[in-house]
Amino acid sequence: MAATPAAGTTSKAASTLSKASTPVSSVLRGRPTLSDSCRSSVRSPRSRALRTSVRSSKARPWPRSIKATCSPSTYVTTDKGIAMWSEDVGFRPLYSANAPDGSLFVSDMYEYYIAHGQHYQNQIDPTTGRMYRLRDKDAKLETDTNLEGKTTAQLVALLGHPNKFHRTASLQLLAERRDPQAIALLEAQLAADKGRGALGSLWSLYQAEALTDARAVAALTHAYAPVRFWATRFLGDKYGVNRGLGVAGVGSKGARELPAKVFAAILARAQTEPDAEVRSQLASSARRLPTAQMLKLVTALASRDEDATDAYIPLLLWFALESHVTLDREAVVGFAKDPAIWDRPLVQQHLLPRLMRRFATEGRRADLLLCAQLLRLAPTPAHSVHLMKGFEDAYRGRELAGLPDELLQAVAASGKAPLILRVRQGDPVAIKESLNLIANRKADATERLNQVRVFGEVRHPEAQAVLLAIAGSAESAALRKAALISLMTYGQPEVGTQTVAIVETSAGDIRLAALALLASRAEWSQQLLQAVKSGRIGANTVPRDMVERMRQHEPKQLQSLLAELYPVKPAAGVTDFIAKIADVEAKLKAGTGNPYAGEPIYMERCAPCHKLFFKGGKIGPELTAYQRDNLGTMLISVVNPDIEIREGFQYFSVTTNDGRSLSGFLVERDAQILVLRGLEGEDITLRQADIRLLTPMGRSLMPEGLLDGMEPQQLRDLFAYLRISQPISK
Predict the structure, then answer these.
(1) CB atoms within 10 A of CB 711
(2) In the chain, what is the greatest distance between 2 CA atoms, to the nearest angstrom?
(3) What confidence tens digit (pLDDT) does each residue in 396-433 have?
(4) Reduced to 3 states, what is the DSSP secondary structure of residue 652?
(5) Per-residue pLDDT tens for 606-635?
(6) H, E, C per residue of 387-432
(7) What Cα–Cα distance (Å) separates residue 526 from each residue in 164, 167, 514, 563?
(8) 650-676 b/e with 16+ CB inside 10 Å = b?
(9) What domains lie within the chain, and their CATH numbers?
(10) Which of 138, 161, 105, 162 is nearest to 36 (CA)?
(11) Do 605 and 721 form a contact (C-beta atoms < 8 A)?
């Protein structure tokens, strides 16, 4: 492999080269065959070692670092190593493109420091960019790269060329020439070619406005799946409307019905299409059609049982249904009138629960009556279970008062009202059954967890003893945490007494959840502070977040204890943070870190809140895609977490009407409920009517002093782990 940098090339020139080699039509997607890889070392303009490793293919150069695995309608990529690397800290590769001769262009903006602020203020050097040209040193490159002199017939033939530049350039030249003689050539190649040549011909016919309905219908049965994919797409573009954008097909003010023969061909394709990616386009196009045709197409696609586990097709079908709810609600509900559709796995798992939840969440009488209608349409009580799942999700944390009699009768007639729903309705038999289930260690763990959480949303006095027993037991950590958080709803003094004992004897997540419980109410907070004052609980055991929650309580005696045990410290100045960052940076640069030794440190200090690859919690932002290779940016975020708070993770304080003090970031919020996730990692669902005060805190949930007490080698090990490019353990 050889990489040839254009010495002295500016970023402007690099941009020009990139644009020259960018595909004319990015939607012309081929499926290149990946050839063997090779490896070599070359030199950059500044004589720094640059190692490259790419797969070479005239059709489309492919990085060796990426392995693509097909997964029905999509694909999964796996990082197999670094494709291009340099010791030069200014090396910033931004973009790669297929070159006309079959090699690969890589543009490098060459900047030492990457920050959005400098970029949008034009505080970057526009003269240091460069371009690399990578190629297999043994490959025979294309020499015929000037296509302007080609005849129309030659350009049509080049639409199937293995090099992407030739295909896209030919497509552009044919579009510019508008040669009428090209139509017959394109139609013939579309029929005869079994690969990229046919796809290019379809595109060229479309650009020439010569893709008639008859030609598109013929393309729907083509042997090459991408041709079928784009034939479907073009028909949707022609007749459909862009839902939510108000932009209809050419010459239309709204979605037009597909002609009968065209729609029959589309419907037949939905029933027999073997390629999942084509089926995903059929589902996408269904959303754009008039409601009647959409429902028929969705019904056909929803009957393809193999797509029930696909990552995207079920959601695409739901998007099609949901986008028509505001257009014709009764017609969408009519989707469920076909008894056969109820037995399809995709419908049961994805469409029925979402449809029920969609109407139940609206909460208006007309919507709730549609919920009742759906329940009556269920062929058997067993089928109504899927609807009740959606209804249960919609009413999580909400009052069940005011439901229409028709809906209550339909729920009762189904005989499948879930236990959680009956508990929320205050059914004494259901409450007893639920508490017995919670106490039964042999019962399903997930079901026990769900039942524990519902008693945190709906207060029943008889649940307190059961929850306390779970919290202080040797049950799983997840169940104990959920019990502790649910106990926040119950304000009895004995809850605080027993929870202080749990703090004394536990550690990790359980202790954190117990501290959150104690900090939530004034009386319990005072019990906690008395234990700290007496030395039973260490002062450093209580995180800053819990201390701040306790400051929201009003009793003077409590505030006096807080002032004594946790005096308010003056905020650190910018100079202090700069000095601390410099100190940590110096320690990191003084030696080499071991990521394997750093992993347990990460698991202890970072993983409770942050996920890196597949390890860690979901309280704070995921770190996998974070710019972890930039030490300066990462140090600022760790040493001074309040300086920049990621969108969606703003920190709020909540005071409830019953005296609870809570804090965290908002997971969900609507007119009826608010879902809060705090440092303890559990979601707390509150009714809006129960909230007295919601206050933005203007700081991060992440605690300061995360690196305090760490030895220099521990720091190096931790940051070595934080900067790994792929998982190092299972």
Answers:
(1) 9
(2) 95
(3) 766 665 678 788 889 888 887 878 878 877 889 999 99
(4) strand
(5) 877 788 887 877 777 777 777 677 777 777
(6) HHHHHHHHCCCCCCCCCCHHHHHHHHHHCCCCHHHHHHCCCHHHHH
(7) 71, 75, 14, 13
(8) ebbbbbbeeebbbbbbbeeeeeebbbb
(9) 2-135 (no CATH), 424-565 (1.25.10.10), 574-722 (2.30.30.100)
(10) 138
(11) no
| Res. 30: pLDDT tops 70 | no
Residue 508 confidence (pLDDT): 84
Structure tokens at 34: 């990946």
Q: What share of the chain is helix, strand, coil (3-state, %, to 5)?
A: 50, 10, 40
DSSP 8-state secondary structure symbol assigned to residue 99: -
Structure tokens, 498: 């027993």
Distance separating alpha carbons of residues 246 and 396, to the nearest angstrom: 34
Query: What is the SS3 assignment for 208?
Result: coil
Instruction: Extract the runs of DSSP E, i.e. beta strands, from 559-678.
Output: 611-612, 615-616, 652-656, 661-669, 673-677
| Residue 412 amino acid letter | A
**Quick one: which H or E segment has residue 68?**
strand 66-71
What is residue 159's DSSP assignment?
A: T
Q: Residue 602 and residue 284: Cα distance in Å, rounded?
A: 42
- Exposed e or buried b per residue across 688-700, where buried means at least 16 C-beta atoms within 10 angstroms of its C-beta: eeebeebeebebb
Considering only residues 376 and 685, tell me which one the structure prediction assigns the higher pLDDT.
376
Mean pLDDT calculated for residue range 512-541:
93
Nearest to 623 by CA among 602, 644, 640: 602
Q: What is the pLDDT of residues 72-99, one digit of tens each?
A: 778 777 776 666 778 888 888 888 888 9
Give the C-alpha separation, 612 to 618, whole Å. Answer: 10
Give me the residues paired with residue 696 across strands: 652
For the stretch 27-36, what's the b/e string if a residue is b when 16 or more beta carbons lie within 10 angstroms of its beta carbon? ebebebebee
Helical residues (DSSP H) of 442-539, grouped into ranges: 445-457, 463-471, 477-486, 493-505, 508-519, 522-533
Dist. CA 135–CA 105, nearest whole Å: 9
- 677-707, pLDDT tens digit by residue? 877 778 888 888 889 999 887 777 676 677 8
**What is the C-alpha R_g of the chain?**
31
Q: Which helix (H) or strand (E) holds 134?
A: strand 130-135
Residue 494 identity (one-letter amino acid): E
At 107 the three-state DSSP class reads strand
Which DSSP letter does residue 541 get? G
Q: Nearest-CA neighbor of 452 among 491, 420, 421, 490?
A: 420
Give the SS3 label for residue 139.
coil
CB 279 within 8 A of CB 270: yes
| Region of residue 219 (left: phi > 0; alpha: psi -120 to 50; beta: else) | alpha
Summarize the confidence of residues 457-476 as an average pLDDT: 91
Measure the CA–CA gap between 456 and 420, rounded to whole angstroms: 12
